[in-house]
Please model this.
Amino acid sequence: MTITLSIPESLKPEDGRFGSGPSKIRPEQIAALDAGATTLLGTSHRQAPVKQLVASIREGLREFFHLSEGYEVALGNGGASAFWEIACASLITRRAAFGTYGSFSAKFAASAANAPFLEDPVLFPGEPGTYRLPELTEGVDTYCWAHNETSTGVAAPIRRVAGSREAGALTVIDGTSAAGALPVDISQTDVYYFSPQKAFGADGGLWVAILSPEAIDRAAGVESSAHLEGAHRWVPPFLSLTTALNNSRKDQTLNTPAVATLIMMENQIRWLNNNGGLAWATTRCAKSASILYSWAERSEYAAPFVVDTDSRSNAVVTIDLDERVQASQILSILRENGIVDAAGYRKLGRNQLRVGVFPSVEPADVMAFTKCVDYVVEHL
Model:
């Protein structure tokens, strides 16, 4: 039976988008698209206007993340899932270790397991709703995990595995739903990669990677050895991190990018930096997340999915609902009222809400979201 219910306008958020990716895009970003209609859209990425846009993105990210000397920003097409394959082709020398505690952290590990020229990865699995970091392991040259597991709303710490740097190993972190929303010390990583459709408020299809000097050297060495006679590794140009970096240094991508994505991302980075950068963004996300967690803890029918408070994400908040309250029914009514994309991750299979609280989302709208859910549950 389909139930319809009108939520009073006075309770509704001004903007009803709470997706965990794609996320809310600010009106100012759309205005930037309109402003660039004749100077950027439809222009070759080899020409100065688009190259200036890429240069602004790279410099803006350097400022936003307070990058140390020697770290470089590279970007290319394909999204973060493409970067998993790039890392397998260009970064992992022989064997990697993975913390796997959700769908996305496990997918990168699966890519490494399928690469015919790599040894089987070492897995450190954690239960959904928790995290587990890889441990120092003999023969491992690359340690990988996700800063924020988008599927479960778990945030993991970013610190090098003790002894890994001394052993010459790299630390490669998936920051896709964390970058711009969670605090991070980039110096604790060799590769911090992400896509722009979360905190950076753009469309997908692009990857960005912040690379340490050690990661740059590793990629050059791995790719050089792949060309030696008898080598069993194949690094096609599209998966070559060195090729991507060389193009990025020219403020361009190897292949034609979606210029609209670049425009929206550049506008978002400037907005974040003008408001106070990473410190401002993470404080804003923490405020929104605390509204949801506090509401769920007070609720008679809801509770935070992630039990450990230190593991709870301030980027993607997951809320379990009592079995008497069906998330699918609530979500259907919310969507009818213009409040969208708060569904739990489908493969997790829980009776759950999942709310993206990236910097573009107003904390006041998050508060309104909780009131709307309460209203729906009360009237069902």
In short: The longest helix spans residues 277-298. The chain has a mean pLDDT of 96. The radius of gyration is 21 Å.
